[in-house]
Amino acid sequence: MVVFAAATLTAGVIALGVFLFARADASTADEFRGSTPPPDIALPAFTLRNAFGELENPVDSGDLDGKAVALTFLDTACTEVCPLIAPAMAAARGRLDAAQRERVVLLAITANPEVDTPAAVRDFLARHRARGKLHYLIGSVEELRPVWDAFSVVSALDSGDDDVHSAGVRVYDSEGMWVSSLHWGVDLTPENLAHDLTLALRG
Fold first, then answer.
1. Which of 98, 42, 87 is nearest to 69 (CA)?
2. How far apart are CA 184 and CA 85, in angstroms?
3. pLDDT band at 6 (very low <50, low <70, confident <90, very high)
4. pTM (predicted TM-score)
């Protein structure tokens, strides 16, 4: 009798665990996997030159309405996180279906215009398997200063070190609102970014 009761109890615990896991999995399916940013922050306005990519040149943030946007700040001379972020973003795009890819834009804005020439950008994107997937925006220091300020980021130009700059990936939904932030070594994976972009498409 004791053995039977123990077995019944064990089976009940296992069943409850499976139920709770399924409920938790269902509840997180509609939640962003990146960290939650402050509320009601829209994509700042900017117009920058596209160093390499299929988007119009220059790229105006106003033309991104209706699209989900993943945006980061990179430096082609960076040897630490930038060579990891670029291929992760490109791989995330590959996890979206064709219809989703039509409505998603992956952007990198230079964190160091003194080194990010069109040639350097083309080489960087090719080396990190992001060519044709990640659009890399450049400009003069005068053009970029207000953009950095609008996003509240630290540039490599200001830190004086190519490896020291803001480099998180921000996700904006189809209405232009900031909905998720992902960081390498914490929550930035191709799977997580693709998941958050899919949710961002819903607006």
1. 42
2. 7
3. very low
4. 0.84
